[in-house]
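Sequence only, no structure available. Ideas?
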Amino acid sequence: MESPKRILGIEGGGTKTEWVLLTGEADEHKILSQGTLPASNLRLISDEALARLFSVLAADATHVGVFLAGCATEEDRARLGGLAESAWPHAVLVIGSDRDSGLATAFGAEDGIAVIAGTGAAVHGRRGERVEKAGGWGQLLGDRGGGYDLAMQGLRLVLTHYDLNQKITPLAEEILRTLALNRLQDLSGWAMQADKMSVARLAPAIFHAAKHGEPEMLATVQAGAGVLADFTRAVAQRLDFTNAPVKLIGGLFTHHPEYAALFKYRLSMLLPDAVASVCGESGALGAAWLAGKGGREVVGLVSMDDAADLATAATEQANPRSVNLEERTTGELVELFTTEEENVARALVACRAELVAAVDVVGAALRGGGRLFYIGAGTSGRLGVLDASEIPPTFGAPPELVQGIIAGGAVALHRAVEGAEDQPDAGALAALERGVRTGDVLCGIAASGRTPFVLGALARARALGARTILLTCNPARTRAAEPWDVEIDLPVGPEIITGSTRLKAGTATKVALNLLSTCAMILLGRVRGNAMVDLHISNAKLRDRGVRLVSAALGLGYDEAQTRLARAGWNVRACLHAK
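Reply:
I predicted one. Tokens follow.
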């Protein structure tokens, strides 16, 4: 009996790459898995980066559809086809642009007009053999009505209002908060470095301001919806298709229903017979449909086994000592918190042997020229990035020696990124892109021990020859068939607020990472006695600390120690070893 098809659909653009893996025949396709990876506009990505992206997707797919933005010419299709053939040499391949997959997602084999509004924007229409387009000229010349366009208009209006009135508007405050900037003047420097996607992330702030009564922002949003409706009419007229079905695709429509409503209102005046509706399905489904030419049935992405495993995690259990929190006095709440934190110390003591093993693994790797990578999602990822960022100023180590990777990238440091932790392939790609190799150590941080992004990165790191450490707060987790080099499961118990792993789990994780990196630095000789001899001196407090260190180590008075340290360029190690 012939094995069922395994159909991989990939749609990539300037913001992200979506993929879906289906199985089955004809109209009985089912989704096995799906996810999101970094951007893959064919004009903006190298062959090497695209090959790495393909390498983390299902290698056993029998049919593969790859549809990327920027794939417009025969040369583009030949280039993309060659890369896809290298990744899937035995699969049936279908290659094209994201326009093709977008139309397939919205209409299958039928005709219609797809209005796409995400980071960029464009309108594509098909009627029989004829295809027409409006918009989509890129962020510098076009993409009217897309997230980048709306955000740039909002930024200009914010700065113009400040220049005229010297006032910070509510929108300006939200933009500064979103970007974690302190002053409006910092916007200029940020904009010089910001890419298309970073700017487009400000679009929700524009919609929020429009909904809350800022007339200029409302006019901006209305104009964006209006120009997309104008483009739709132009495409419909060129196709002689005034009663066309119109599908609205992309994050601006799916996340901001008011934008879809404004578009529909404007279109109803321009094309009264057209019927517009929002299409929330991933473009990867259209890519898979083109590759397999069949129907599909969506099934849950979290299996019952996975759900059961998560439900039994210690981090997800209710704490019987913290019921009815809202009924307790402030004193009782403080007493409960301080008592529960005592479990952190006990958990660390319980894992002393595993912590020793982890320090030995990391120390040996760093002494051998390797590097330490922390990887995690949410709180776990932020703690890893924090610990890594403290190593250069504290121990004078190069920033590449200890690195932090967080699911969702830098934006996830101060804002939750939806679904970022659920993609094992994204973790695997992150390990590849950051250059994890033989001799390195990758430490996965996951309170529950089952975060797909982390496990995907660990698996890829091991395949690349790196040593692996998994740090969790869930001793009851299901173990992998092949264990990681070191597994640390801190038994902190259930949280005061169920599932809030920023509490005891976060504290225990922070201490464990402090221990791991600090002991490794001691083993590298970056500590003398109990002093930081490679301290990076960058302010008055640290200059004083350095002077006192030299004074104590060499038996000198404060002024003499300061003179010697200044003569050594404020390099403590050089000062201590000077003749």
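The chain has four domains: 5-115+283-292, 120-270, 320-523, 540-577.
Hope that gets you unstuck.
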